Amino acid sequence: MDFDTVLEKYEPAIGLEVHVELNTATKMFCGCANEFGSEPNTNTCPVCLGLPGSLPSINGRAVESAIRLGLALNCDIAQWCRMARKNYFYPDMTKNFQTSQYDEPIAFDGWVELDVDGETYRVEIERAHMEEDAGKSVHAGTSGRIHDASYSLMDYNRAGVPLIEIVTRPITGAGEKAPAVARAYVAHLRELVKALDISDARMEQGSLRCDANVSIAPLGAAGLGTRTETKNVNSLRSVERAVRYEIVRQAEVLESGQPVVQETRHFHESTGTTSSGRPKSDADDYRYFAEPDLLPIAPSREWVEELRATLPEPPAQRRARLQTDWGFSDIDFLGIVSAGALGLVEETVAAGATPATARKWWVSELSRRANESGVELDELAITPAQVAAVQALVDQGIVNDKLARQVIDGVLAGEGEPAEVVERRGLVVVSDTGALSAAVDEAIAANPGVADKIRDGKVQAAGALIGQVMKAMKGQADAAKVRELILEKLAG
Predict the structure, then answer these.
(1) Which of 68, 229, 309, 407 is the most exposed place for a label (fewest CB within 10 A)?
(2) Tens digit of pLDDT for each residue in 223-234?
(3) Collapsing DSSP states into helix, strand and coil, what is residue 276?
């Protein structure tokens, strides 16, 4: 079945659980460094390894970050809450439980509004709770997954890293837009946590990841269908693809006369498909109980209001301000937002480019390259400052737009800063009148018919000769100077 056919019979519902790793200096309950990319098992201690006799101590900055995020999500902030032990047996936590929050989250009953293709969708937030991350399993096999591994290794550097998990209530009524709403929601959270400066939100490194719950029910039916939970989806593009795939897959299961199995599933980037993980009931028996080694958390109302005063400009207000400041039409500005380029364009403008040129590079040229590479726009190996530097080279007449694309090629290939790429590749525009004049003479001689049209006053025909000169000069001619020489030589 295709996606449109499914929607003729079924209504999708989605629920999203987003885990955000905080950028605190140390872990949630100990003094170990919170660093990505360290040598395996070097950022560990008796507390995060759960050794007997070790006692945790809560990270105050993590609590502050959780409150600020909760406020930014329009949540109520608990006056009193506790940590709990979530018990399970798995190698990624040596103490065999995860310190989390169960029935007493730090933030609850929030909401956000999303603009998706000109329509507004309200997403209800059930809770945002604090917890610690687990360690990382490294499976030795061709796929990197446990099913074909000959052995597995454990890296506990991530065990104990502060997390906030944001859980939505079921999102219904989105219909065909459900995959796009899922993507827009995760993009909104990523933008928000970066603006709050509480996480680097790098999905490719796992510091922001999404579990996507999907179910479908026949149109007009009461209640929701049986859900599946696709775990640890780590890019915006993949969130959208995973939701879309699961909607179609579940419809095909139902159409075959079989029930949808409630389970966790894995998303495969290479194919855009999901595969079965493990069965999962609505209430896994984690045997939660209050963490006896940590005091309850009771943020004063005064502190909460102090933190509210530190919140950045709300995303909707920021978008409206930037559109006004930049002078873009609704369609042009929507193109920036849809491409996930708003922050990148803003930083490029701050680095010296005009809004129009920043938009041009990110929304057209660089978005195309990101799509071809199957990565997010901000994962490309080029920074807003470098894009602004490329445009500065164009503005100075050192390169033209065609050569600028080659400069971008060099930056993406790791050849250095834009100016270094220009020097190494010899990409400077030729504006020497002697060289250009000779090339123009050759183009006129090779195209007498076009030259006659220009002599007869059909100036627009000069474009053909300009193209010939640019080709002969390998794109490195100053097009404006070439046009000027052509008209000068063929005047009257």
Answers:
(1) 309
(2) 899 999 999 898
(3) strand
Report how far residue 208's alpha carbon sits from residue 192's, in angstroms, rounded to the nearest whole number: 12
**Structure token pair of residue 402:** 């065609």
Q: Quick one: which of 72, 47, 285 has its CA closest to 195?
A: 72
Instruction: Please give the C-alpha separations between residue 437 and each of 428, 440, 468, 486, in angstroms, as whole numbers.
Output: 18, 5, 13, 9
Q: What is the CA radius of gyration of the chain?
A: 28
- Asked if 483 and 460 touch (Cβ cutoff 8 Å), the reply is no
Cβ atoms of 383 and 344 closer than 8 Å: no
By the 8 A CB rule, do 209 and 203 touch?
yes
Could you give the residue ranges of the DSSP H alpha helices within 327-432?
Answer: 330-338, 342-350, 355-359, 367-373, 384-395, 401-412, 418-425
Phi, then psi, of 419 in degrees rounded to 5: -65, -35
What burial letters (b/e) apply to 341-379, b meaning 16+ CB within 10 Å?
bbbbbbbbbebebebebbbbbbbebbbebbeeeeebbbe
Quick one: which of 26, 88, 81 has its CA closest to 56? 26
Euclidean distance between CA atoms 297 and 446, whole angstroms: 82
Write down the pTM of the prediction: 0.80
- pLDDT averaged over every residue in the chain: 89
Order of strands across the sheet that contains 263-268 = 76-77, 107-116, 119-132, 162-168, 10-21, 208-218, 228-233, 263-268, 273-279
Q: Write out the two tokens for 88.
A: 């399970």
